[in-house]
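JOB MANIFEST
job_type = single_chain_structure
chain_count = 1
residues = 216
[input]
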Amino acid sequence: MPVFFLFDASGIIGKEGTIMTDGSVARQHKKGYGLTFLKSLDFARIFHDSPLEPEEKSEIVNARHAEVLAEDPLDLSNLKYIVCRSMAERETLNSLLSENVLDRWRPQVVIDRRGDLFFKRHFFIIEVSLSRSLITIRVSPDNTGPFDLQIVVKDEYGYTQVFERTRFQFEPNPYSLRISEPRNAYLISIHVNGFLAYRSFFQESPYQAKPHNLLF
């Protein structure tokens, strides 16, 4: 699940010891410092996103690997946003963070609604709607399967429901799954081809224990 860290460029590029390159440091490249070198970079090649001709492939692929390198460990003082690809992936990230970390960064965790930072191609989960008895999953229409799918629902009292399918197709899309015994609060995880694609907490009443107490 990709997460984009969006930093304040001026705070990073102007930082003493920051180096920029016009290609991969593992290949032939130029390096420099500051605004003058930044303006000299070939951004048409760095952000190239179309078919490649054989004679230009090597140079464009190398340009795509242009880097900004910090001389010392980079702190998060210039981090403006933590950008997720979809609502479902933001919920997943939030569920994996501790309460202290989430309280610190919650306002900065946002969704790329305009599509400026992610291509949003291939498979990913766009949105998951949760209730006491029903789970509804909406995925990217670019690829709805087939996949090896595992959905696990657990609550703090030991209830577990597992839904597993091989070569599963998300059709219809959205796809709905009924919880066999309705729950007031539960933890849900969705794995696709063995990888975590979604994780979140559901609680019906705001007066119940906070979802992060359901760490089982």
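[summary]
The first strand starts at residue 3 and ends at 7.
Confidence is low (pLDDT under 50) at residues 209-216.
exit_status = 0
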